[in-house]
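For the sake of transparency, this paper describes our internal protein records without simplification. Because each token names a local backbone shape, the row as a whole describes the fold. One such record is reproduced below, unchanged from the form in which we store it.
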Amino acid sequence: MLSVSVLAFAAPGCSNPAGGGISDDGENGTEASPFLVADAADLAKVGSGIDGWTLGKYYKMTADIDISTTADWTPIGSNAAPFTGTFDGGGCKITGLSITGSDTYRGLFGYVDSGAAVRNAGVSGTIAGSSYVGGIAGRNSGTIENCYFTGIITAVGNYIGSITGYNGTGGTVQNSCNTGAISGAKYAGGIVGYNTAKVENCYNTGMVSSYTPSATGGITGYNAGSVENSVFLMGTEVKNSSTASSYFGRVAGVNSGTLSNNYAHNGMAENNNIAAAENMVSNKNGADIDIVQWGSFLWWTGTAGWDSTVWDFSGVDAGSYPQLRVFL
């Protein structure tokens, strides 16, 4: 089992609190005039086809939304009919997400297709499924950016991650973070379960566990694409059911792609042994960092290469983590 401490991500809520649902103001689901998502009923309507709210339209949240009264959320988009539009959370948060059972393509979105985008959305809740399970999307071939997940994800199958379970060809996951607990059978990652595309400028502080001898990592379980400028913070131990170090890593459990400029907390152990000389920015463990480094604005914007217009670092010197500005 791979495990790290779970810490809360402070997200004060919607940065765009005004507005309401679709009305007579001319919203038509275009980029210039997106459908406005203001409550649980609106959110459930996204991609349904009702009143023209199809899977290929533009949507924007205008308020924080609690969907805890929805006992079992139906993901937006599926393997057969993926989401092809744009969903802008507007700095708002979705709380109370609950998905039960053991189906595939589980998450707020089931499948985000090539050319689609989900951005500026925070999600918290509890998700269960089989394979292709993620907090934001079960599978992604589009763009997911400026998003966070906190909560619990458990899966009995493959491809499990906090942001997306599987980041496929053409997919990008960037400027996103996780503080939730992730558990699955195979290919479990703190941000992405299985990556064949691009992951950049992401961090994870949550627990990741795999109960089979398979690829398990703090950022991605298996990397066949590129992971860069990403950080696994406050890790205490990297472990799964195998004692073979080839199955796990602080950044990537198994790597056949490109890793560059990645880091992990220097107190993290691998199978009860503190990892040492092999830790480098370009390998699956990432380079060591300590509290002094991640408490420095200059370390984040210089060494880690993060953008201060996207992330707020004002609390890092007091032991807090970078915050996405869109939620502040």
User: Anything to note?
Assistant: Confidence is low (pLDDT under 50) at residues 1-12, 17-24. The first helix runs from residue 40 to 45. Residues 136 and 223 are 19 Å apart (CA to CA). The two ends are 35 Å apart (CA to CA).
